[in-house]
Structure formats: C-alpha cells, structure tokens
Amino acid sequence: MSSLTTVFVSGGTGFIAQHIVKQLLKRHYRVIASVRSRAKGEKLRDNLQSENFSTTNFLFEIVPDIGIKGAFDDVLKANSDISVFLHTASPVTFDVTDIKKDLLDPAIEGTRNALEAISKYGPQIKRVVITSSIAAIQTFGRFAKEGESFDENSWNPISYEESLESPMYGYAGSKTFAEKTAWEYVSKNKPNFTLSVINPAMVFGPQAFPITNKAALNHSSQAISKLLELKPNDPVPEGKGAFVDVRDVAHAHIVAFERDDAQGKRLILLTGPYNNQAIVNITREDFPTLDLILPRGDPEKGELHDISKRWNNEATKKILGFEFIGLEKSVHDSVQQILGDSL
C-alpha cells in the first residue's frame, strides 16, 4: 500500500496497539489512534516524540466508551481519508465484578459499533483487521477434551451462559462472541471492506515505551513481573500455555491488511509453548544478578514439549512469511525492561 495510506487504530494505548502504532509510523503510514481521554492521547504522542518519531503523521481521537452505540461515528465522519481500520480495543482483564458489563458488552458491542460506523461513514475503508485471541479458538478448563487439536477453522464452543460463570470464561466468551459478531456482520451485509482477524496466544514481550507504572502493566507482563518478585526459597508457581511476542502480533496486523491472501482469514499467532519454570530458567541464565535472587525451582520442569499436534497454524505462517521471535528473546527483553537500572 501507499505510504500515504491512513490507518485507524482503535484502543491506541493498549499493549499491542502501541507497538502497531510504532511499526506503522516506521513504515511511513499516517496513523489515527482512538484513546479514552485527551491525557492518554497526549501521553502516547509524547512517548512517540521521546523516541524520535515524527508525529506529523500521527493524530489521536477521543472515544471514551467503545461500547456505546455510535462510538466511532464522529471519528469516521471527521476523517474521510482513513482506508484501513484496525480494531484492537477490547478488555483483557480478569479482575471484574460484572462479567457481562465489564467483558462481554464492551467486546461485542465495540466490534459491532466499529463495523456499523465503517459501513455508514467509511465507504472508502477497504481493509478491516480485528484483534481476537486463541481463546476464541480453543477449549479450556472444564470444556477441554483429551487429544483435541486446533487450527484456523476451530471455534471455542462456549455458550453465552457458560461465559458468565467466571472471569476466565467471560474473557473467552468475549473474544468468541465479538469475533463471531464480526464474521456474521460481513456475511450478512456484504460490506465494501474485507475482514481479517488476528488470534494471538499469550502475548509476551516488552512494552512499546519505557515503563513508568508497574502497577498498570498488561496481564502478560504482570505475569512475568510477579515471577521476578519471588524469593530464593519460594516455589515456582504452576503456569503454562502457548505464547507469541507482542512485536510479532503488531507485525501481523500490518501484514493482514497489506496482503491480499490474508483477506477473509483468521491468523493464529502462536510461536510455541511456555511455562513459568522455563521463564525462570531463562531469566536466571541471562541475568547473573538474578541467579542468586530467584528460586531455582525444578529446572527440568522448564523443558518445553512439542505442541504441534495440538496446534496447527501453518496456514497463518505461510501468509505472514516472517519468523516469530522465540521465548528466550521475548522473556529477556521483558525482564530487562521491567527491572531496568536495578539489573
């Protein structure tokens, strides 16, 4: 696409979104990001300037609540040059009191509001990319079955009622139903734009900008930060899954609108397995000062087993055409940023 292409990024201050904004600007796209307040927008702009990004091609628009009907209407009315819409705004939290209000409604209604606004006020928009999750693809918890495998055609079968049982199921439901809302909208309305969806695993990696408030870290970064707070005699807590680096997720969003063969596709962003012991092993090996501070645990439990029989994202890798960042670099860069000068 032309370097003059204007790309809209909803939820512009999110963990993934900030990396997307940086990568778009590096590729000489014009970027408009939605933020929840002027203060957040100015902070994002200041962060970009602090890393020597020219903000000539960066603007922010305030969208206080994506779940309110018509949330994106004014933005699209005011910016008729937007031709790509990246919808990354969706809650990623498990600290909620009302699953429907805090997780399901913002994800589902936010997606519907974005697509309706594009159809009404963005006829020039040709490419739409939505950030979903492998939570919309896989089963887990009491719904998991032995020997299951997943690919780009798989769907989490969770029901709306089941998603109300816990924040974890609520998150899975929010991703599943928001994504289904998008595909059903496209199928029913036959809009002018094509749709691609990014389904990342657990997203590790550094923040897009220096950390100023560790209490405000995103979920995956908090997971690593908590491991770094362990004492020498503490047990290494259980925890495992599949991961991808945030920089690869951002890159995939751009490929998803640039490449014709990504249109109408779900893209599974999954590099491989991780577990907490493996993260501790990498950290102790890479940072000698931490080797004496962190618990040793049981290093052998950090061995990572092949998950290719459970996950197949070969179709995604063929479309994306780039190598994913490995667990060691992802963890190393995260730890280095979180601890900074204390290392």
UniProtKB/TrEMBL annotation:
The keyword Oxidoreductase applies. Residues 7-263 form the NAD-dependent epimerase/dehydratase domain. GO terms for molecular function: oxidoreductase activity, acting on the CH-OH group of donors, NAD or NADP as acceptor. Pfam families: Epimerase (PF01370). InterPro entries: Epimerase_deHydtase (IPR001509), NAD(P)-bd_dom_sf (IPR036291), NAD(P)_dehydrat-like (IPR050425). Keywords: Oxidoreductase. SUPFAM superfamilies: NAD(P)-binding Rossmann-fold domains. Belongs to the NAD(P)-dependent epimerase/dehydratase family. Dihydroflavonol-4-reductase subfamily. This is NAD-dependent epimerase/dehydratase domain-containing protein. It comes from Candida maltosa (strain Xu316) (Yeast). The lineage of its organism: Eukaryota, Fungi, Dikarya, Ascomycota, Saccharomycotina.
